[in-house]
Amino acid sequence: xxxxxxxxxxxxxxxxxxxxxxxxxxxxxxxxxxxxxxxxxxxxxxxxxxxxxxxxxxxxxxxxxxxxxxxxxxxxxxxxxxxxxxxxxxxxxxxxxxxxxxxxxxxxxxxxxxxxxxxxxxxxxxxxxxxxxxxxxxxxxxxxxxxxxxxxxxxxxxxxxxxxxxxxxxxxxxxxxxxxxxxxxxxxxxxxxxxxxxxxxxxxxxxxxxxxxxxxxxxxxxxxxxxxxxxxxxxxxxxxxxxxxxxxxxxxxxxxxxxxxxxxxxxxxxxxxxxxxxxxxxxxxxxxxxxxxxxxxxxxxxxxxxxxxxxxxxxxxxxxxxxxxxxxxxxxxxxxxxxxxxxxxxxxxxxxxxxxxxxxxxxxxxxxxxxxxxxxxxxxxxxxxxxxxxxxxxxxxxxxxxxxxxxxxxxxxxxxxxxxxxxxxxxxxxxxxxxxxxxxxxxxxxxxxxxxxxxxxxxxxxxxxxxxxxxxxxxxxxxxxxxxxxxxxxxxxxxxxxxxxxxxxxxxxxxxxxxxxxxxxxxxxxxxxxxxxxxxxxxxxxxxxxxxxxxxxxxxxxxxx
Length: 561
Fold this sequence. Notes:
Elements: H1 23-53, H2 58-71, H3 75-89, H4 94-103, H5 107-136, E1 143-146, H6 174-186, E2 191-194, H7 205-211, E3 216-221, H8 228-237, E4 240-245, H9 250-257, H10 261-275, E5 278-285, H11 290-293, H12 296-305, E6 309-314, H13 330-346, E7 350-353, E8 373-374, E9 380-381, E10 388-389, H14 393-398, H15 403-407, H16 411-419, H17 436-446, E11 449-450, H18 463-481, H19 487-491, H20 507-513, H21 545-560
Parallel strand pairs: 1-2, 1-8, 2-3, 3-4, 4-5, 5-6, 6-7
Antiparallel strand pairs: 8-9, 10-11
Helix pairs in contact: 1-5, 1-21, 2-3, 2-21, 13-18, 16-17
């Protein structure tokens, strides 16, 4: 079976029951079959391109990016990919990431990433999300975050989930875990983040990833439980990305996580790199280690170890050892913001800051805007750091509900979504740290319950400290937001959502006819304050998968000659 095109993606024979469907149901059925056929054909095109490319030089990589730009279904995606092409034509460091992906990563992992995430999650998933918005009034999110366990072999200082019970049997059964993913796929979601606890204490996580071979699973792990058998299986599956937690160098990591953890993680990275797996690092900044994380030496080491990406987080007082003192200072957060931008301009690694890059997502991602979280007890939380919920998925399923009922229509999620974009400064997105009042208002208005004892501290005991901290950072954020580097994001609302109906007036026309100021992946030089300047284009017409497949075949000549 073609690893890039699972059998479920192929065209399906019409069943006898189709003749008994109503007109509305029949239209839905036919649309689903069309989606499957389109995805199947795009999968064939992608697979043939992968086989033809082989080991890639820069010319082939740029040609592949041009093919993707032609195949994109929205002006938004076409504009992004044209920006990428121009960056690569100017030998931007992000081209180095592509070289590694195509030349160092195992073909199973590379092809699954492009097909599952690119074709199913973005290309096909975008159509499904738009359909849901027309019917349900809100777009489903792009990804789902699931914590199938809270068990962990470490006891890290300041763990955000450390106030949940640790040494208990996993309440989330295989059947519920499976149904969450299945319901999510019906919403167009094919990208899942798996966290915990330590996900690999469950022996069935890789079996779940195999069952849902049409998805990409991004796993946050402490890196100490990954055996050679795990590595072999991850390569075989191809649909698993890993992010391993480090706190800086040896001293910072072992101090927070325990003796020997740094050494174990470094050894795991070496084995993953040798096997051709896709992985990166995850670092949580505190007052004690923020300056180490925001150092070029640390990033250089992560690149040498084989990381293709890295995530920066801010310690939030939402779990174990929840003293606001240990948060990075407002000045350190500002340095982390600038550091992530600088590293993307200079290094062959993608650095993303969960808070400071909210301009890329037009604000906070939580509450079903771009993602949701289901904890190990089944509580449906807006964010892994917001430990409040209104509904529990176990109860929802017992009562015959669907995940969309909570994600799209839950009053707590709606309340947060309404408030989270009040501040036009997208460098202040967070309802915990930047606008603590948004979280409190939403909880009071909807009666959302804390999902563990002590969760309410963020709006009670820590309320004043967090709001004072948020105001102090706000002054720095205003200076950065008005510096000129963020002008593109002020003029193009909701671009990440890729829904032209939601965009600011004139945005589509700018994408089609004008050069772009700024760059949504923030991989631009700040010299002129305007960014990479990529020509817009395209006529806005839809794309036919058969046409794109024939174009792909002709592109094989261009890419391989």
